[in-house]
Each structure stands twice: as C-alpha cells, then as structure tokens.
Amino acid sequence: MAPSHDALRLSRCGGVVARHLQDVFHLPAMSASVCEARRRVLTLLSEWGVDERCRADAELVVSELFTNAVRHTDSAKVACEVRLTGRQLRVEVTDEGCAETAPRARFSGIDEEGGRGLMLVGALAEEWGVRPDEAGRGQVVWACLRCGRTGR
Q1: What is the predicted pLDDT for the residue at 150?
Q2: Is residue 71 part of a domain?
Q3: Ramachandran angles phi, psi of 147, nearest 5°
Q4: Of 76, 79, 100, 107, which sees the most CB atoms within 10 A?
Q5: How far apart are CA 63 and CA 44, in angstroms?
Q6: What is the pLDDT of residues 119-144, one digit of tens each?
Q7: What is the CATH number of the domain that holds 133?
Q8: What are residue 72's phi and psi, to 5 degrees?
Q9: Within 10 Å of residue 148's Cβ, how many Cβ atoms?
Q10: pTM, entire model
Q11: How many independent structural domains does the chain possess?
C-alpha cells in the first residue's frame, strides 16, 4: 500500500529534535470504507513502529470516527489524517458536512444497538474534540492517543 501522503519532518522544540510522521487519505463515504480506513491506519502505524496497544486503540478510534462520518453526514468522501509526534498519535477524521448535530458522547440504553462510539473514543484518548473544517462546511473530529514504540 502506497500512502497518499507520507511526510517525515524534523523540527526543534526547546533544543530537542521532534520527529513528525503523518499520512492523509480520502475514501468514499460508504460503510465498506470503514474497514479500509482501519486497515490503512494499522498498516501505517505498524510501519512507523507504534506499539500493539496503541495500534489497537487507534483501530477502534478510527473505526468509530469514520463510521460516524459515514452514517451521520451527507458526505461523498471522508478524509483521515494520522500524525505521530514523539509519543503522541493524533487521528483526525473530516467529513463534508450536513450533520444534523455536532458529535457528542452520550449514554445509550442497554437495548440500543449504537450510540457508544464517542464514549469509547473518550475512554481511549487523552483528549478528543470537534472543530469546523477549513472550508467551514464540514467538521473535523480528532483524538489524541499516547503511544509507545516497538523499537523499529
């Protein structure tokens, strides 16, 4: 799999060189794309040497955020950006808009099939949030995870 965008940047932060790895990809806003998004992120994080726990957490976060973008917006495509800086992984999923409400965690009844995704994201992430996309039409839902490295 050739990433659509793979960048390595070195920058100075208080005398320390920080390594930034990032990738961005776009997929059609279809249920079948959720599996592809998970696969791409897992492959990428494996190549970057991210530990298994963080890969598993990122897989669930990407699955939940991508599913929400597909189900709850009127998007033709969904973007996913993954950025690793030091030990922090940031995942951003951007839709094209027209959601009825802003994403928010909520409590679901025991008999409800869905509605727990953002609670899971909140439990796994150090922080997460929502902001408007650059065009002002869609929204970006992001989550930051703490990651270890496998030593690759």
Answers
A1: 76
A2: yes
A3: -130, 150
A4: 79
A5: 15
A6: 889 999 999 999 998 888 899 999 99
A7: 3.30.565.10
A8: -110, 10
A9: 12
A10: 0.78
A11: 1
